[in-house]
# Entry
Amino acid sequence: MDPVTLVSILVEVLALCEKAVDQLKKFWNAAEDLKTLMTKVGLAQRTTQSILVVVMELKAAGLTSFEFSLDLFVNPLRDVIRKILQRVQDILATEAGKPRPKFVQKVLWTISRDKMDGLEKELGGLEEGMGHQVNTVNLLVTMKYLSIVRANTLAVTSSQSELHDAFTEPVTFVDQEGEKMGDHVQVMRTWLGSLDTDKHDQVYVQQRAQLANAAKYGDWDEVLDVLESGRKNYRESWVNAPRIKTGEELNLISLWTPLHQAVYMGAPVEVVSKLLRMGASRTLRTRWTEFPWADMTALELAQHLGVKHQIELLRPVIHVPIPTSTLNILQVQFHELVRRDMGGDFKDEEWCLPQLEVLLEFEPRQWTWFPTHGSDARVAGYWYLLDGRDLLVRSENVSGDGTKQGYRIVVDGTYEVQQALVY
# Structure
C-alpha cells in the first residue's frame, strides 16, 4: 500500500473511531460491557493516531522502502470500526433517523451483545498487532528523524535574515468587538481545551458554569456579562467555551458552545450576530446531542431544528482554503506533540485538543493560545497559527521549567526550529 493511500485510510479510521465513541456515549449507562467497548474503541483511536504520525515520520525519514506491514491491519481495522459504528447507530435510532426510546435501546443492545463481543475481540487483536508493528520501527524512525530535525533546524535558522520571525510579533489580539467593550482589554483568542474543573480555581469554575447555564436558558444579557468578565479577569475569549465538569462526568461533556445554545433557543439575529462578531466559531462541532448526529455545527442544528432566521448567518466563511486531508495530518501531529510534551499528565477524557478547522475561519496568520495549566498563575501552553499549509507552534513552559520551543509542523513531519519563520 502506498503512503498516500495508507495516510488516507488512517485519517478515515480516526474519524470513524471518534464517531463511534460519540455514539456510544449516548447510552453510556446501559451496561458495563458497553463501557469496555467504548474504552477499546478509544484505545484503537489513540493507536491509529500514533501510527499516522509514524507513517509520516517514515516518509520524512526516507524509509519508504522499509517492509512495513501496517496495511495488513489498517483495512480490517476500518471494517471493524465501521461495523461497530453501524450497529450502534441502528440501536440508537430508526432508519428514518428518529431516536429510539431508551428501553428499546437497552433491549436491542442485549440482543446484539454476542455480535458486539465478537467485534470487540477482533478489534483488540487488530489494535495489538498494529502496536507491535509501530514498536518495531520506532527506533529506526527516531534515529533517522533526529538527523532530519538537526538538518532542518540549521537550514531554517541560517536563512532567518531573509524571512520574517513570527515569534517576535505580539501574540495577543483585540477581537472585533474589542474597541466597544470595557477598557480596551486585550484578550487572547483562546482554545479552551481543559475540560476538568479540578484544574481551575473555584471562581473560574463558577463563572464558566454561570456562562454555560445562561446560554442554556437563553439569558443573553447574562451571557454577554460573563463573556466580559472572562475578558477582564482572565484575558480569555470565552465565546466558544463549553461546559466543564469533573470525575466520571467528563465522559458526558457535550461541547455545546453559546452559539449552539443560541440556535437551540432560537435566539434573535442580533444575539447570533453579536456572538459571531466576538469570535464565535461556525465550524465547531458538538461531541453529542439528542439529535440523529452527535457531531453537529451550529448551522446543522439550525437546519435540523428549522431555525430559518439564523441559517444565513451561520454559514461558515472560510479565509484559509487548506485541503481537509492536509489539515487532518497537521492536527494529528500537533496532538501527538501535545501528548508527548505533557506525558503522564495527559488524560484524553480531560482534554479537547485544538481542532484546526476553526483556524480556517480566521484571517491568515492570527495566533491562538491553548493554555495547558488551568487558570492558576502559571502561564503554560501553546501558541499556534496556520502559515500557508504549515502549522507554526510555540510551546511555553508546558513542562514547568520555563522552556520555550518553536515548531514547524508540515505534512511530512514536525520540526524543531529556533524561530517560527513566516514564509
